[in-house]
Amino acid sequence: MIQIDEKAPNRSPCIRCATCDGYPCLVRAKSDAQVLAVDPALEFPNVSLLTNAFVERLETVPSASVVSTLIVRRNGQREEYSADVVVVSAGAINSAALLLRSANERHPHGLANRSGVVGRHYMGHVNSVLMAVSKCPNPTIFQKTLSVNDFYFGTEDFPYPMGHISFVGKLDGVTLSAGAPAIAPGFTLDLMGRHSLDFWLTSEDLPDPENRVTLDGQGNIVLSYRPNNEEGHRQLIARLKGLMNEQRACAVHGHECHQGLFARNLYLKERIPLAGVAHQNGTIRFGNDPTTSALDRNCKAHDLDNLYVVDASFFPSSGAVNPALTIMANALRVGDHLLERLS
After folding, report:
1. Residue ranges per domain, the chain?
2. Disulfide-capable partner of 213 in 55, 119, 184, 239 (CB 3.0 to 4.6 Å)?
3. How many whole angstroms separate alpha carbon 100 and alpha carbon 113?
4. CATH hierarchy code of domain 50-121+280-342
């Protein structure tokens, strides 16, 4: 939970290193949320990061359409916070759950839920990991250097969107052991990992209102989901298999290099299970019509004047690529809107 004091003075964020303020030098090599967003934000004196803080619910003023109080459970103690603007960004599942938990007499179905769409239209993409094994070893360490969108909008023989193909981080014996039979020898998995070429396949997950986030009688999150667009995904897998069989001849093994360690084509395919919610999106969709969407085009709740949801919840459709960059771009866009509003 991040709290911003608009009245506190600002100063430029400082990159901490051995020559500044006595901090030890940090590598800061990964362009993740902590390095690019959280750490620089915390250099401002008007920003506080509260850890071990669970937002239980948002309370509204009965006579006005505003969020008045955040009820927080922090280190086992109840705390209350208030702000002129409240931004929810807990991920598509937890953001929807928070709004549903915050139901009250004026908002009996949850906050921002006059349309009934909060929690609905959950999407997480149809994802698969597909591994091809070659006779030649693959010594690559940083493998995520390829993306193929040739089949994104379909082909002449299958004129429907199939999706996106990219490399996945290099598999090894340890990662392979998670899905291997218990009797599989470790040295075999290590050998397969050293000879693998590893792909991540993504197809669009269509917005189905029955794929949804709800709460049970005890307030626990329930995720109900049935995959769709599976034929497009099967077609995408078939295209990748076909491409692998058409690879140029290997200088050592000729055209037989990509026929696996066991003198045959060996593809290990694993669909990402429901618990793999890394691409979660769509549960608090935005739109111009308050009867069919929960948020307006600036990601402000139609029903509340000071509540924004700025994560992947706002997606009305999922596309067929990782949503992270779209989430970031939209957050910057909404940030500009909030600056205008606060000024």
Report:
1. 50-121+280-342, 126-271
2. 119
3. 8
4. 3.50.50.60
